[in-house]
Amino acid sequence: MNYQQAWDYLDSLQFHKIKLGLDAMRSFMARVQNPEQQLKTVHVAGTNGKGSVCVTLLTLLTQAGYRVGLYTSPHLSSVRERFRIGNTFISEETFARIATQIRDVLGEEKITYFEFTTAIAFLWFAEEKLDLVVLETGLGGRLDATNIITPLVSVITNISMDHEAYLGNTISAVAGEKAGIIKDGVAVITAVKADAGLAEVEAASKEKNAALYRYENDFSSMLNADNSWKWRMSNISYDKLHCSMKGDYQIENASLALATLQLLKKHDFQVSEKTIRKGLKSVHWPGRLESFSLEKEGKKIHYLLDGAHNPAGVESLVQTLKKECTYKKLIVIWGAMADKDLQSTLASVAELADSIVLTKPDGERSANPELLLENVPSAYKDKCKLLPTVESAISWAEELATPEDLILIAGSLYLVGASRKILLGELVT
Prior knowledge:
Blueprint: H1 3-12, H2 23-31, E1 41-45, H3 50-63, E2 68-71, E3 83-85, E4 88-89, H4 92-106, H5 113-128, E5 132-136, E6 153-156, H6 164-167, H7 171-178, E7 188-190, H8 198-207, E8 212-214, E9 219-223, E10 229-233, E11 236-241, H9 249-264, H10 273-280, E12 290-296, E13 299-306, H11 311-324, E14 330-334, H12 342-350, E15 355-358, H13 369-374, E16 384-386, H14 390-400, E17 406-410, H15 413-424
Helix pairs in contact: 1-4, 3-9, 3-10, 4-5, 7-8, 11-12
């Protein structure tokens, strides 16, 4: 297969619905000599912040001179975004070659889309003989396709309600699934809170004899008056640190990454304080509180893109808008998946918005604008306009915006990906 054929074949697997379980993954990987067993890994699960922790680890370790692979999901516009070594994404040729290999081994057998991409990651990273691989879970943890590895360190960012159809409708159930990445004797770094899954994480760590390091207990951060921050763990501390990404919660994510680096020292990975300071200032995670400005017809327009799609993520977005963003009017472009908590997420943003355009990114899971409108509180419905395509929504918002205004595009990574491609072009070229 060439690249386009390989991508088309992969997309056809989306009709093979999500199927949580490890049997198919283990069976297939055994047929290609278990490349995942050759890798040194860090495994990252959680509800929000997984990607930020992963890309922070990638950035700091790469700047320290290590060859590090990164596997994340979903992608914004190109499937190649899911696979990186340092700052280099998988090439079209390599993607097509490995995808063809997997298809040929499978024959008539089918695996899920995520199992297929995970197999690509394992095969490519093993070929490249990397120093370390950072793996983000796709959904949950216990039955996630990535969970066939035994990492050097496990990370669980935080736990809140999301993907209830697959993970359960209580925090305890979701936490139990996330804690399923914990392995025998493998240390765990976490920011899980006492009233949001900590009991389940503690129980799993105890059962697996895995040392547990808790944010705000075994390591911590403190915001300084000048908006820099201080981090400490045991007898190690760094002061006057700065994150490149917006959002106070990025300090928590960066803290998890720094704690992970401390544990990686036991496995001979060394990152200097100088590299940490420089690296934190250069972490970039597109589509997550990403701000930029563009000139359109002689007018400067300001944008903020964020993939927040569950109540906890949207609350963090709202706090960032209130504390870190300045604008005269807030113009919101919103699209979401129909299986998300539309009511609470929309209400939080609608309260701040001056104008809202409800639209629909491509995809069978995307909610129609009419369904979104039903979930807008009645007090804010007059602010709303319904447009059928992302292109028309952006055009309408740009026509309305002045240089003092901010266009927020949020509600779904699929919407953010489609919008970012229109505004900035492909992330991977």
